[in-house]
Amino acid sequence: MLDEARRLAPRFAARAAAADRDGAFPVDDFTDLKNGGFFGLMVPARLGGAGAGFSEYAEVAYELARGNGATALVFNMHASVTGALSGVTDELAEALGLPPEALAARDDALKEAAAGSWYAVAMSERGAGSRLSQLATTYERHGDGYRIRGSKTFCSGAGHADAYLIAARNADDPSQVSQFLVPAGAGLTVEPTWDALGMRATASHDLHVDVTVPAQALLGGVEGLALAVAQLAPHWMVASYAAVYVGVARAAVDAAVEHVQSRGLGRLPAVRARIGRADAAVAAARLVVGEAARRVDASPGEAETNRWVWRAKLLAGTTAAEVAASMLEAAGTSAMRRGHPLERLYRDARAGSLQPATSDVCADWLGVDALGGDPDTDGTAPRW
Ligand SMILES: Cc1cc2nc3c(=O)[nH]c(=O)nc-3n(C[C@H](O)[C@H](O)[C@H](O)COP(=O)(O)OP(=O)(O)OC[C@H]3O[C@@H](n4cnc5c(N)ncnc54)[C@H](O)[C@@H]3O)c2cc1C
User: Fold this and answer.
1) Cα of 155 from ligand 1 centre, angstroms
2) DSSP letter assigned to residue 375
């Protein structure tokens, strides 16, 4: 699948300018992903998927992002849902006391992904951002199931996904934050609000929710798991985008090299040095993402693993923004024209540090940790 991602990247790159210009969802890229079996990347082989681990996901995401960061970012949301579901092994489920019906629902969702369905994430809200403990969307018991009501924002792939992971708080006990997998259709209304600086093709629109779902839609089958999962296994919430933004950074270096060579600017020492520094910075960020991913596969949730996860997100976000800015400067004003790859990559790369955990939040987490505090609880505001 890594080879297939490398094969698809130039196809994505060829379509990226038009999708960015129109702020249009990359429908053809997603058809390619579906045909290539990518929706089953994180699904265990016993359920029909490729059974990839986090390291393999990170490599695939990096390659896809070299083609189109927006496509890779939306795919990341699906990989996060399916990766987190696959991470609930039968042993873990038993330790957590998850009911058998929840495991059957997990398997059904994963099988459908392997068969070509894909999932979006509707967590963020206007005002609350991605802080799970502050969400205004609520759920309550309704017959044998739940009624979920609220409004989400920045939902990448809104209007195109087959189902949405929706985070909500219990209306009677707001300390309980739960996640539901809700099929597209009645009760979910997309409001096309995404007209942004960068990652324009992600269709990260608002999603209004007033829907009743059966009990099996509650992920894990037990209420109140969302905050614990975010703290214990932060890799999908914090670091899965990291590989995407390192891929965007590498695409910026590649685009700058092409531009500089075609214009005969390579003899200028200042231009060469910018490319040299950028190359080294991207390689370093990629190594850190790789190390975090390796540790996630080997010892998920361990304190040292989580440190690398937060480091990876911080370095990927800042490296992408700095490298893309420097490559634009190396290439010159002609690369600032609309439609030039560097103009788009500069804007796409800008989003990396803003995605949760933002670079500032990552730096604070790492700083609190380095100073001997508890980085999950000692911040000035709730992390989640
Ligand atoms: C391209 C793109 C795609 C996205 N796709 C999705 C998606 O599919 N699904 C989804 O749910 N969301 C998605 N998001 C939304 C992303 O999760 C939001 O950026 C997030 O919810 C934060 O919202 P916010 O930036 O408006 O506000 P905030 O998180 O409130 O951030 C505002 C400022 O406050 C600071 N801050 C926030 N928390 C803390 C803290 N604990 N301590 C100190 N400082 C803090 C931040 O660093 C920042 O400077 C996407 C975002 C982007 C850019």
Assistant:
1) 12
2) T
Burial of 339 (0-12, 13-18, 19+ CB in 10 A): exposed
Pocket test for ligand 1, best of 74, 126, 134, 154 (most atoms within 8 A of CB): 154
| Ligand 1 binding pocket includes 199 (Cβ within 6 Å) | yes
Measure 310 CA to ligand 1 centroid, in angstroms: 15
For residues 70-85, b (16+ Cβ closer than 10 Å) or e, as one string?
bbbbbbbbbbbbbbbb
Domains and CATH numbers, the chain: 2-118 (1.10.540.10), 120-223 (2.40.110.10), 233-370 (1.20.140.10)
The predicted-structure confidence for 127-176, as pLDDT tens digits, reads as follows 999 899 999 999 999 999 999 999 999 999 999 999 999 999 999 999 99
Which of 354, 359, 366 has most ligand 1 atoms within 8 Å of its beta carbon, as the pocket-test mutant? 354
- Residue 263 CA to residue 199 CA, distance in Å, equals 28
Tell whether pTM > 0.70.
Answer: yes
